[in-house]
Design a protein that fits this description.
The protein has helices at about 1-10, 25-30. It has about 100 residues and is largely without helices or strands.
């Protein structure tokens, strides 16, 4: 609402200031359009220790048919039917257009 009022009044919003130093054109020219080296790092190093689960009933995990029907993107199902379980999930997607 506030921005709409400013625009309706014909006022111009100032661009934000950036404190960083501009990158040299030569450095940008060497980096444009991707690179041949792909580096991925997942940090999934959690631990479960010193826990106890007493009188716990664990059940089955099921995914019924149609659970992902009409899904878009990359659907992920993370399930847990136990006790004292550490669930870590990470996805790295590399898309290379050539």
């Amino acid at each position: 609402m506030y921005i709409a009022s400013i625009l309706a009044a014909g006022l111009v919003l100032a661009a934000p200031d950036f404190d960083g130093v501009p990158v040299a054109e030569e450095q940008l020219a060497a980096l444009h359009a991707g690179a041949d080296t792909v580096s991925n790092e997942m940090r999934v190093n959690g631990t479960v220790a010193g826990n106890a689960a007493l009188n716990v009933n664990s059940g089955a995990n099921t995914i019924s048919s149609g659970a992902f029907s009409n899904a878009a993107g990359l659907p992920v199902a993370i399930q847990n039917s136990g006790a004292n379980v550490l669930i870590q999930n990470a996805t790295i997607i590399n898309i290379q257009l050539q």
